[in-house]
Amino acid sequence: MKYEWRKQDKSIYLPKQKPEIIDVPAMKYFTISGKGNPNSPAFSELIKTLYAASYAVKMMPKKVAAPEGYYDYTVFPLEGFWTLEPGSKTLDKDQLIFKIMIRQPDFITPELLDYAKETISKKVLPEHRELLKLEEITEGLNLQMLHIGSFDDEPATFAQMEDFCEQNNIIRLSKSHKEIYLSDIHKVAPDKLKTTLRFEIKYK
């Protein structure tokens, strides 16, 4: 049976439009880390690199022998950790520090990352390809909420999440946060974009 994250992992990716607590387990991702404006052409190229590598793994059975443990699945959505330079007091998008990522299926291995890098060598810039890493990340206890609207309107949703923390004796652990992009920005109007917002918490 095809593994579809929108069905099997609904609680992880598709929260409601109200704050909810989730304990996010360890998962494996292709990641690229960097700094800069997410509206820049260079950032778009990094996203292209992540998707190219992810689809290279998914399409393996049509190109070469399927890897051990392979099963059919829907490619996972783009995600990203975002934070500011230490000491930053205002939001300057050029100073944003990010780790963008796409989750990989359980059968992923370092050897499959090497295969993906080789497969996409003619499709992406070599310096971007070399930024690709395979990482296991455990996010742990988090608060998350669905944001509908433009990225610039996210502060209103974060304010609701902060209010929830205050009312429930919860502490936000850092200004870093996670975004999961559920909509295609090229096909969906800005005011209809769906993004899961998440940050790490602990109880007081």
Question: How are the SSEs ordered, and which strands pair?
Answer:
Layout lengths: L4 H4 L1 H4 L6 E16 L5 H18 L1 H4 L14 E7 L11 E8 L6 H10 L6 H4 L3 E16 L5 H14 L2 E3 L4 E5 L12 E10 L1
Antiparallel strand pairs: 1-3, 1-4, 2-3, 2-6, 4-7, 5-7, 6-7
In terms of DSSP E residues, the strand content is 25-35%
For the largest sheet, list the strands in their spatial order: 1-3-2-6-7-4
Segments where pLDDT lies below 50 for 5+ residues?
none
Assigned CATH class: Alpha Beta
Quaternary form:
single chain
Write the H/E string, N to C: HHEHHEEHHEHEEE
Q: Gyration radius, to the nearest Å?
A: 18 Å
Helical content class: 25-40%
N→C terminal distance: 43 Å
Mean pLDDT: 96
> How many helices?
7
| The named CATH superfamily | Regulatory factor, effector binding domain
Outline:
globular
Work out the count of structural domains. Answer: 1
Structural class: alpha+beta
Count of beta strands:
7
Would you identify the CATH architecture? Alpha-Beta Barrel
Main beta sheet strand tally, sense and closure: 6 strands, antiparallel, barrel
CATH topology call? Multidrug-efflux Transporter 1 Regulator Bmrr, Chain A
Protein name: GyrI-like small molecule binding domain-containing protein
Domain GyrI-like small molecule binding: 18-201
InterPro entries: GyrI-like, GyrI-like_CCH_Lin2189-like, Reg_factor_effector_dom_sf
Organism: Listeria booriae
